[in-house]
């Protein structure tokens, strides 16, 4: 199966795990744009699919389920798969699904991919206090920042920073705390005005995806 998958997913980095424990451990700490689950070869493999859908990092990822009679197509879809392919694998069939999912995979990659940055920023707390900060990375969906004062973040805050290619363009965004390893905080972007959103998206589009 690995050879067939490699033929279809050419040019894409593939990481293979041959037991469910390793697979669960991997999805708990890493983001992937897509998963290919061999449902009926590994014991408890079908449990990985709802695990992906319930994980914070991978719930929007594309899931390809490979079945071989034990798991039905309907069951695989109900668990959360986007595409289901039977064995023996039909390369043309799998390739068609891959091409259909490519736009969604690319969109997920852009949403989650963290661009490393080093920008001065300001965090406004709900009581109006302004905290100096530095942005460490940025994505469509969120960013990580380091607070330059000893301060706790809780709930939603406002973040302001100037774009490096347009210093007169001040981005103002509402963000909510997702994780913290003080003094570094991970923030999910919750809202931007239209002008800020357009400028921020354009800025990200100019960066290499790595």
- Give me the strand/helix succession: HHEHEHEHEEEEEEH
Which structural class do you get from the secondary structure elements?
alpha+beta
CATH homology superfamily name of the largest domain? Response regulator
CATH architecture of the largest domain: 3-Layer(aba) Sandwich
Helix count from the secondary structure assignment: 6
* Domain tally: 2
Shape: elongated
Strand order of the largest sheet: 4-5-6-9-8-7
Largest sheet: 6 strands, antiparallel, barrel
Counting copies of identical and different chains, the oligomeric state is single chain
CATH fold descriptor of the largest domain: Rossmann fold
Q: Roughly how many Å is the radius of gyration?
A: 20 Å
Total strand count, please? 9
What does this structure look like?
The strands form 2 sheets. Strands 4-5-6-9-8-7 form a 6-stranded antiparallel beta barrel. The protein has a 3-stranded parallel β-sheet with strand order 1-2-3, sandwiched between helices. It is built from 6 helices and 9 strands, in the order ααβαβαβαββββββα. The longest helix is centred in the middle third of the chain and has 22 residues, at 91-112. It has 210 residues and is α+β, with helices and mostly antiparallel strands. Helix 1 (2-8) packs across helix 5 (91-112). The model has no long low-confidence stretch (mean pLDDT 87). It has helices at 2-8, 20-29, 48-54, 73-79, 91-112, 194-205, and strands at residues 34-38, 62-67, 83-86, 115-124, 130-138, 142-147, 156-163, 166-181, 184-192. The protein starts with a helix and ends in a 5-residue tail after the last helix. It folds into 2 domains: 2-112, Response regulator (Rossmann fold, 3-Layer(aba) Sandwich); 115-205, Thrombin, subunit H, CATH 2.40.10.220.
């Amino acid at each position: 199966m690995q050879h067939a998958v490699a033929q279809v997913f050419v040019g894409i980095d593939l990481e293979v795990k041959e037991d469910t424990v390793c697979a669960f451990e991997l999805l708990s700490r890493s983001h992937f744009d897509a998963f290919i689950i061999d449902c009926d070869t590994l014991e408890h493999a079908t449990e990985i699919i709802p695990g992906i859908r319930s994980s914070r990092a991978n719930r929007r990822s594309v899931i390809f389920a490979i079945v071989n009679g034990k798991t039905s197509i309907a069951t695989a879809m109900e668990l959360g798969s986007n595409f289901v392919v039977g064995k023996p694998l039909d390369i043309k069939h799998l390739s068609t699904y891959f091409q259909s999912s490519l736009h969604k995979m690319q969109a997920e990659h852009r949403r989650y991919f963290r661009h490393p940055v080093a920008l001065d920023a300001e965090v406004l707390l709900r009581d109006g206090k302004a905290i100096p900060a530095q942005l460490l990375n940025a994505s469509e969906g969120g960013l990580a920042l380091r607070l330059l004062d000893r301060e706790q973040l809780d709930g939603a805050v406002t973040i302001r920073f100037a774009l490096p290619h347009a210093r007169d363009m001040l981005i103002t965004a509402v963000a909510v705390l997702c994780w913290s390893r003080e003094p570094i905080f991970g923030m999910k972007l919750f809202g931007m005005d239209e002008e800020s959103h357009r400028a921020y998206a354009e800025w990200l589009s100019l960066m290499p995806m790595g």
